[in-house]
Amino acid sequence: MKTFYVTGEKAKSQIILGEHFYNFKKYLPDDHFVIITDEVVNLYYGSHFTNFKTIIIGCGEKIKTLQTVEYIYQQLLDLGVDRSWFLVGIGGGIVCDITGFVASTYLRGIKFGFVATTLLAQVDAAIGGKNGVNFLGYKNMIGTFTQPEFILCDTSVLNTLPKDEISNGYAEIIKHALIKDAGLFNYLESNRETILQNDPQTIQHLVSTSITIKTEIVNLDEKEHGIRRLLNFGHTFGHAIEKVTGISHGKTVAIGSVIAIELSCKRNLIGRNDADRIKALIAGFGLPVELPESNKKEIIDALLMDKKRENNTIHFILLKSIGKAFVQELSVEEIQLNY
Ligand SMILES: NC(=O)c1ccc[n+]([C@@H]2O[C@H](COP(=O)([O-])OP(=O)(O)OC[C@H]3O[C@@H](n4cnc5c(N)ncnc54)[C@H](O)[C@@H]3O)[C@@H](O)[C@H]2O)c1
Ligand SMILES: [Zn+2]
To answer: 74, 103, 216, 314: which could form a disulfide with 87 (CB 3.0–4.6 Å)?
Structure first.
């Protein structure tokens, strides 16, 4: 078992890798807690929490809304939950983002923790205290920065995760390698076959390395004023593609990453060889690398309305080399000209 920490302004978060997910009760203060999970996770793992108060929500990005948040508030009221209670989100990034937001706002904030059940949640979404929901189709428009008390990552639950969902997790692992860790990039290249066979030790290594990278960044910049912005690599385009096409988060991050790499190459920051190497790695992990041609105009329009746009520029994360990223402001014209 390995433990990592995120020290936020208001609370400390403990990330435990290698703990059995069904031991989550060990990390709770008492019996006053409610589980929030989704229909699919409940089907697979609900037998481990039948005796506890549980709120089950639907699946998919479409339910990451204020309506779902209101539904949960109502259930919490009906259960008589007060400020001394604890919420536990058991699921992927969507359950974690919603649970974190509900817990941070219900009665001005109650304590919460996560059992992360997707690869994407274990390596990224559950960690760092960002939570929130979509609003009017815009990704993560409404949310807070609040650290969970704990995050349990048990890689054995990934055995039931569909292959397609596993590859969504690879997109964020590759992102971590590209922005911060050339060694991880080499590891992904050299061990691709073993990783794709879900070799437990290799997956454990990837989750552990990703948690290290994410916690280090969040510990330096919890509220995203500086270095934490690097974690948005691939996400500016990614969010626009997600909004227009409904393609899953990990896959749109993969396409967004390739776009950021091409922009880095055009500006002579990275060479063609490295750009091709990165694209080959992303494709090699079963992820898309092309912007969907049929929706191109809509995607650019959505991008130009992105919430991170300031004046006539958009914050983009580009690469200097594999493992080194930086923030670059790009003009709307430059983006329009290239796409
Ligand atoms: N807060 C952050 O810092 C942050 C970072 C990255 C991504 N995100 C968010 O995370 C979300 C994506 O998360 P995700 O990819 O985990 O998707 P998800 O939560 O939708 O999970 C994917 C699917 O897998 C199912 N599932 C979950 N665990 C399972 C298991 N062990 N076995 C079988 N099926 C299982 C779920 O029911 C769901 O249908 C996006 O909304 C994204 O914006 C947030
Ligand atoms: Zn992401």
So the answer is: 103
pLDDT of residue 300: 87
Which is nearest to 316 in space by CA: 232, 225, 228? 232
Query: How far is Cα of residue 34 from the mean position of the Cα atoms in its chain?
Result: 23
Residues 79, 82, 85, CA angle at the centre, nearest 5°? 90
- As a whole number, mean pLDDT of residues 213-232 equals 97
Q: Where are the domains of the chain?
A: 2-160, 165-338
Position in ligand 1 atom list of the atom nearest CA 130: 1
Mean pLDDT of the chain: 95
Residue 112 CA to residue 71 CA, distance in Å, equals 18
Q: Which two tokens stand for residue 3?
A: 């433990």
> For residues 306 and 74, what is the distance between their CA atoms, to the nearest angstrom?
32
CATH homologous superfamily for the domain 165-338: Dehydroquinate synthase-like - alpha domain (1.20.1090.10)
Is 165-338 the same fold as 2-160?
no
Measured distance CA(238)–CA(299) in Å, rounded: 9
The model's pTM:
0.97
Choose which residue among 97, 144, 229, 253 to substitute to test ligand 1 binding: the one with the highest number of ligand atoms within 8 A of its C-beta. 97
Q: What would the CATH number be for the domain defined by 2-160?
A: 3.40.50.1970
Residue-level pLDDT at 206: 98
Instruction: Report pLDDT digits (tens) over 207-217.
Output: 999 999 999 99
